[in-house]
Write a structure and sequence with these properties.
The structure holds 2 protein chains of 2 kinds.
Chain A: H1 4-19, E1 27-32, H2 34-43, H3 52-66, E2 74-77, E3 82-87, H4 92-111, H5 122-140, H6 142-155, H7 166-169, H8 173-180, H9 185-206, H10 208-226, H11 229-239, H12 244-260, H13 262-271, H14 274-281, H15 284-290, E4 292-296, E5 301-303, H16 306-318, E6 325-327, E7 336-340, H17 349-363, E8 367-371, E9 374-379, E10 382-385
Parallel strand pairs in A: 1-3, 7-8
Antiparallel strand pairs in A: 2-3, 4-5, 6-7, 8-9, 9-10
Helix pairs in contact in A: 1-4, 1-10, 2-3, 4-10, 5-6, 5-9, 6-9, 6-17, 10-11, 10-12, 12-13, 14-16
Chain B: H1 5-23, H2 25-29, E1 39-41, E2 60-64, E3 75-78, E4 81-85, H3 87-91, E5 102-104, H4 105-120, E6 144-146, H5 156-171, H6 180-183, E7 186-188, H7 191-194, E8 198-206, H8 214-233, E9 236-244, E10 248-251, H9 253-256, H10 267-277, E11 285-292, H11 301-314, E12 317-323, H12 332-343, E13 347-352, H13 355-376
Parallel strand pairs in B: 8-9, 8-11, 11-12, 12-13
Antiparallel strand pairs in B: 1-5, 2-4, 3-4, 6-7, 9-10
Helix pairs in contact in B: 4-8, 8-13, 10-11, 11-12
The chains are: A alpha+beta, B alpha/beta.
């Protein structure tokens, strides 16, 4: 239940946002406690199916919040209407800041090109998935479904919401399995459900920097108009004390506005995602100002070379910091061959066996992975390498 | 009613964690430093989804210390500068992040007890019969008054009376002007009853060079099983810890479980320190548990015998655990302690070789306690 004390300030901020040229779906604010915020943050969506993996993250978030290592001030969902959570233990000014930030996100969700095709009905979809999983558990046994979910969540990170070309999508493991794995009907339905949820989160990841940057930028735009100089001064300290995506994104948008005007910033938020934003807006001067560098731990050296920093940032965003593993076109019939496309970099070997075991659980035939200068095979006898 | 999905998920996670830890208990329990900052830290490679991750990176993207730290960021030191790795911060996802498994020490002990009781096939504890002096697990009654106590146990009536008296004395007026420092009286438990609920347990551990690895595992397993029974027998247990080699020292619980083995063995110092710690103790039942491989220095043998006798006089029960993972014959001072059981009613000897012998020792200890209790019961 939203506390009445915020009603007025919400309408004022909303009015300011619309005056500034923003457009968004209605936002439903909900007052809640740290615990519920940790719950939603760990699961990604409030009514998602229950899985042990979220439990570990939830536990970690609750512990971190109780030790005040860090706190989650707000949460907002890409749905229509948008749902936003305010923390009851925040101060009034903190929540005012959060409200302004949330309108920035709501505007981004409604206008960014990549979000146009996103599923705004995700709350209903996840509820439906959760019910489906419960009914399958009753029908096929809890253990079987849990093992299946573990394997599906493991391969689900290979989704890519930006990839529309069918041959390119087929190189991604989860789409390949969806099309060709010898799954039973209910297993395929579950795979599709997990893939759909993974795509929802993939989009958020691929636009994390631009989305947070825009929301932080809008928050500053609106609050300088709303607050007194003293109030703004106390809050603006927090602007430079945020996680990297907030500060980097904010700085890029501020730079764009200063150089090319607010209309250009609006245009960038409409058409760009993280990679294109970095490519267009990051300059040598900003790299220095943001103090971002490529670090060599052995030599203990920092490199502020613009191209090097840009390349690394873009690679990180393109592949979400994970090894780029694709389905090799040589895969035929029952043979599934995966290849690590960046062979110079080593994959942690202790994870390979477990990963291939998960893929094998879905493919049910021998799976090969070319990585670390070897070919790993997982079949009914287990893991071997040549 | 709200379904708390976070807590249900955490329960599932913890169940898996428990199963995982149970399989690795033996390895964990041998860790030289079992408790760090009150927690048992493990090297277990987490309950993570087995997504692929890069091995050690030669270079990574980072930010200077000027910018704020956020969730999931790892910091690496670089000379005087702060270097904040940006990897996890840019993804916004939690997949593939390593969570090191850590457990609260009490949680670890409970888990270990669960595994051990199962493996040892020991009986579940039955509540002891209500007889003898050590008999009550009921909440104690606060039937005495004291000037020092808990705020929740403030005796209002007595405190107000005292306030009136003080005001009359000091100001000549009958005012209720309570000054807690001066007027308060609290309900407390009658000390005579209080001590019957408690035991004092002194754990003495030989940390000479040979006591490591499997030796420590045996000692810790025995202690955890002992705790399971003693905690149910006594509502409150006062535990003190001593380690000895050439000299003996009292340690905190956490230090006791992080021993550094070195030096020679002077069993006498262990006994002497334990007896010393009994000074001023009002608890009813006094237990000494000593764990050693018995190889005391030759010059210490006679002194060790004398101090052992002193300990038998001072304690209600002295349990001597001969730590013997190789299953060799019992020699040295342990042989003397084993003989002592024949003549001293309050001496218990346990040859700790493996789980089977811990089981035998526990049975013996429990039977011994029951016999003593029955003997002490009013007829």
């Amino acid at each position: 239940m939203m506390q009445a004390e915020y009603d007025q300030v919400i309408s004022r901020i909303e009015g300011l946002a619309r005056d500034r040229g923003l457009a968004f779906d209605p936002v439903i604010f909900q007052m809640t406690d740290s615990d519920e915020i940790a719950e939603v943050a760990s699961m990604g969506l409030p009514n998602r199916f229950i899985h042990w993996y979220w439990g570990g993250t939830y536990k970690e978030l609750v512990t971190q919040q109780s030790k005040e290592v860090f706190t989650i001030l707000e949460l907002v969902l890409n749905t229509a209407p948008s749902h936003a959570f305010l923390r009851s233990t925040n101060t009034y000014l903190q929540n005012v800041l959060v409200i302004a930030h949330v309108f920035g996100h709501a505007d981004f969700f409604a206008n960014n090109h990549w979000y146009r095709k996103s599923n705004k009905n995700m709350l209903n979809a996840t509820e439906q998935h959760a019910r489906l999983i419960r009914s399958y558990e009753a029908q096929y046994g809890q253990e079987r479904i849990e093992k299946l979910l573990d394997a599906l969540l493991t391969v689900a990170t290979s989704v890519n919401t930006f990839e529309r070309s069918q041959p390119e999508r087929r190189k991604r493991l989860i789409y390949y399995l969806e099309e060709r794995a010898p799954l039973e009907e209910f297993e395929r339905v579950l795979l599709q459900a997990i893939r759909e949820e993974a795509e929802y989160f993939d989009l958020i990841q691929r636009t994390h920097l631009i989305n947070e940057g825009w929301a932080t930028f809008i928050e500053a735009e609106l609050l300088t108009r709303l607050l007194t100089a003293r109030e703004w001064a106390s809050l603006s300290v927090q602007l430079c004390n945020r996680p990297a995506p907030y500060t980097i994104g904010y700085t890029l948008f501020k730079h764009l506005r200063d150089q090319e005007g607010f209309a250009r910033a609006l245009e960038v938020r409409r058409f760009y995602e993280d990679v294109s934003l970095i490519d267009v807006a990051l300059t040598e001067d900003l790299v220095r100002r943001l103090d971002i560098f490529v670090y060599d731990p052995k030599e203990k050296q920092k490199s502020y070379d613009l191209q090097k920093v840009k390349d690394m940032l873009i690679t990180q965003k393109l592949y979400k910091g994970e090894p780029r593993v694709e389905v090799d076109p040589a895969s035929q019939g029952r043979d599934l061959l995966l290849a690590h496309m960046d062979e110079d970099r080593k994959i942690e070997s202790k994870r390979i066996g477990l990963f291939l075991k998960s893929v094998y659980a879905l493919w049910r035939n021998p799976v090969k992975l070319r990585a670390n200068g070897k070919v790993y095979t997982y079949d009914r006898r287990g893991l071997s390498s040549t | 009613m709200k379904i708390h999905r976070g807590r249900i998920a955490q329960y599932k996670h913890d169940q898996m964690l428990r199963d995982y830890l149970k399989q690795n208990l033996n390895e964990l329990i041998q860790q030289k430093e079992l408790i760090v900052d009150g927690r048992v830290k493990t090297q277990i490679a987490t309950l993570d989804l087995p997504t692929l991750k890069f091995g050690e990176e030669s270079q990574f993207l980072a930010q200077g210390g000027g910018s704020g730290a956020g969730p999931g960021g790892g910091a690496a030191g670089a000379g005087g500068d702060q270097v904040q790795a940006l990897g996890g911060l840019l993804g916004g996802d939690h997949h593939g992040k390593e969570l090191t498994v850590e457990l609260d020490f009490d949680e670890f002990v409970r888990l270990a007890q669960e595994v051990l009781l199962d493996e040892l096939r020991l009986p579940a504890f039955r509540e002891p019969a209500r007889a003898g002096e050590v008999e009550s697990q009921d909440t104690s009654e606060l039937d005495d008054l004291e000037r020092v106590g808990l705020r929740a146990d403030l005796n209002l009536e007595e405190t107000m009376t005292q306030s009136l008296l003080r005001n009359a004395r000091e100001r000549g007026r009958l005012d209720y002007d309570v000054d807690v420092q001066q007027d308060a009286w609290y309900f407390v438990e009658d000390p005579a009853t209080f001590q019957n609920h408690r035991s004092v347990e002194i754990y003495v551990l030989d940390i000479s060079g040979s006591m490591r690895g499997e030796y420590l595992a045996l000692v810790r397993k025995t202690i955890f099983v002992l705790w399971h029974y003693l905690e149910r027998r006594y509502p409150t247990n006062l535990r003190r810890y001593v380690v000895f080699q050439d000299v003996a020292e009292e340690k905190t619980r956490d230090e006791f479980f992080c021993v550094e083995s070195s030096g020679g063995t002077h069993v006498s110092t262990g006994f002497r320190k334990a007896v010393e710690l009994l000074r001023g103790v009002t608890e009813h039942d006094k237990f000494l548990f000593i764990f050693t491989d018995g190889e005391t220095s030759s010059g210490d043998f006679d002194l060790a015998k004398r101090t052992y006798e002193e300990a038998l006089e001072a304690f209600d029960v002295v349990t001597y655990g001969h730590v013997n993972p190789g299953g060799r014959g019992i020699g040295g001072f342990s042989e003397h302690a084993q003989e002592g059981v024949k003549t001293r009613a309050n001496a218990v000897f346990a040859n700790l070789v493996d789980l089977e012998t811990i089981r035998a020792a526990m049975r013996q200890f429990l039977e011994f306690c029951d016999t003593r209790k029955t003997a002490a019961s009013p007829r």
